[in-house]
């Protein structure tokens, strides 16, 4: 209170002295001051109020600074501000003027009218810009701000399929596309409508499938992988998987369970040699038992698997074979399955009918039994099965527009790359009705599979055209 009283009295004295210097009258009325041409009191009052407020603020800051002079910041960021060089005092310096008392400013008022504040502001701004470039983080050179470096030596790729192929062939090189893959190639965002559904993982789904694409290449099945087996032939494998598909249907298991069992059988037969043919069925039923424990919520009991083999193998034999398979696969069951990719590609296809999706699953199971297609990656077989189902059951679009840029982007396969696999699957589907091993055909002839295998298109003109395409 005492300080405020002293400040008010000092301001009254300064106003009285200023009026005496300029020639104003303390008792002049408001109307007389408005009628005056020069209006010295109003002009001086505006400047004095601004400068007087600044003086009071500075005194208050000095008081606060003296009170908190021993207080230190909670966190030491070790940021060192670049010090701006002190500007020389001059007539045109705005910083010098604002530090004078109000009485001194009154005497230098004509000088203020000739000053150019914009020039002073530009000078200070230029100094700040120059000094900001040398700001550092103290003793941490790793945190020094650096200008972004634009690399111009990257190779431009104009197709998502070519980009994926180039990354595989040259993993150490950097490639980029000109603007945005989705914009340039007219690729739709198939996850846009699922952004509010947390179970669809729209933020991570593309990264997950990129990981699956890389993972399937870590577990390849060699061409003619049964060459190291002296007692097991490709025909025996086909008979085993045909019987296994029937058991899978009788137990009402998930489709992932069947495909995982097929994957484990092929990987085990590739990793081992000299498997006796009398134990081949034991390998198959054990793989289905392991896959059911991995995929099913309520897997069948081990006694059920003993029963379907007509007690050919005992419970202990199945458990011993389970250990051997785990050791051969090094306890790694993470190889992606064709059905995983088929669901993703079906979503990329857009408005796909139930019959086309069921036909794609039918083609997948036919391809799993065929020995010649074991060398293909699961994603490639899934893409070819989907493409064939769209081609066979299509009645609206032309054949050239079936494999859209969206499908090519999300599957990473072009239409030409899928044609050899499509031809092989079309051959299998066209003769499935008259084949000796008919478990897949019989399974998909039921109502819960929409009678897919009995459709006329499965042995029609389009299927024949695809099977015999050069």
As laid out across the biggest beta sheet, the strand order is: 1-2
State the order of secondary-structure elements, H for helix, E for strand.
HHHHHHHEHEHHHHHHHHHHHHHH
Please count the beta strands (DSSP E, at least 2 residues each). Answer: 2
Structural class: mainly alpha
CATH class of the domain at 338-467: Mainly Alpha
Principal-axes shape call: extended
CATH architecture assignment of the domain at 338-467 = Orthogonal Bundle
Mean pLDDT: 76
Integer-rounded radius of gyration: 41 Å
Instruction: Figure out the total of helices.
Output: 22
Largest sheet entry: 2 strands, parallel
CATH topology of the domain at 338-467: Cyclin A, domain 1
Low-confidence stretches: 24-54, 64-81, 87-154, 178-184
Q: Could you give me the name of the CATH homologous superfamily of the domain at 338-467?
A: Cyclin-like
Helix content: 55-70%
Strand content is: under 5%
What's the end-to-end separation, in Å?
102 Å
In short:
The chain is mainly alpha-helical. It has 22 helices and two strands.
Task: Describe the protein in words.
The chain is mostly helical and 470 residues long. The chain is 56% helix and 1% strand. It contains 22 helices and two strands. Strands 1-2 form a two-stranded parallel sheet. The longest helix has 28 residues, at 40-67. It is extended, with a radius of gyration of 41 Å. It starts with a helix and ends with a helix. Keywords: Cell cycle, Cell division, Cyclin. This is CLUMA_CG008651, isoform A.
């Amino acid at each position: 209170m005492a300080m405020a009283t002293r400040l008010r009295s000092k301001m009254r004295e300064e106003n009285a002295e200023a009026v005496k210097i300029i020639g104003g009258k303390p008792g002049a009325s408001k109307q007389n001051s408005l009628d005056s041409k020069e209006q010295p009191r109003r002009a001086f009052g505006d400047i004095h109020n601004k400068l007087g407020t600044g003086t009071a603020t500075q005194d208050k800051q000095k008081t606060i600074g003296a009170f908190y002079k021993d207080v230190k910041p909670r966190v030491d960021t070790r940021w060192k501000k670049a010090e701006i060089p002190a500007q020389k005092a001059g007539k045109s310096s705005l910083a010098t003027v604002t530090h004078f008392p109000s009485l001194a400013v009154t005497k230098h008022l004509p000088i203020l009218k000739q000053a150019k504040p914009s020039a002073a502001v530009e000078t200070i701004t230029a100094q700040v810009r120059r000094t900001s470039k040398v700001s550092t983080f103290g003793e941490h050179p790793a945190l020094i701000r650096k200008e972004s470096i634009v690399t111009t030596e990257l190779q431009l790729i104009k197709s998502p399929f070519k980009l994926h192929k180039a990354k595989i062939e040259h993993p150490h090189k950097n490639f980029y596309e000109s603007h945005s893959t989705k914009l340039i190639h007219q690729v739709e965002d198939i996850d846009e409508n699922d952004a509010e559904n947390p179970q669809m993982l729209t933020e991570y789904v593309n990264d997950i499938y990129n990981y699956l694409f890389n993972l399937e290449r870590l577990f390849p099945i060699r061409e003619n992988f049964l060459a190291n087996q002296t007692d097991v032939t490709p025909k025996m494998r086909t008979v085993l998987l045909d019987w296994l598909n029937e058991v899978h249907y009788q137990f009402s298991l998930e489709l992932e369970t069947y495909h995982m069992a097929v994957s484990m059988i092929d990987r085990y037969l590739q990793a081992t040699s000299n498997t006796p043919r009398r134990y081949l069925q034991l390998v198959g039923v054990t793989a289905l038992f392991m896959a059911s424990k991995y995929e099913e919520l309520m897997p069948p009991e081990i006694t059920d698997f003993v029963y379907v083999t007509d007690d050919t193998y005992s419970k202990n034999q199945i458990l011993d074979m389970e250990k051997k398979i785990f050791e051969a696969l090094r306890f790694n069951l993470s190889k992606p399955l064709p059905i995983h990719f088929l669901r993703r590609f079906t979503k990329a296809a857009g408005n796909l009918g139930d019959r086309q999706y069921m036909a794609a699953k039918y083609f997948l199971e036919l391809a799993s039994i065929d020995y010649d297609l074991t060398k293909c990656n699961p994603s490639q077989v899934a893409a070819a099965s989907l493409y064939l189902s769209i081609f066979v059951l299509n009645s609206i679009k032309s054949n050239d527009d079936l494999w859209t840029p969206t499908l090519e982007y999300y599957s990473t396969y072009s239409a030409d790359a899928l044609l050899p696999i499509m031809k092989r699957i079309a051959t299998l589907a066209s003769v499935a009705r008259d084949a000796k091993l008919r478990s897949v055909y019989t399974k998909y002839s039921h109502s819960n599979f929409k009678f897919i295998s009995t459709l006329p298109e499965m042995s029609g003109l389009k299927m024949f055209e695809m099977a015999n395409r050069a």
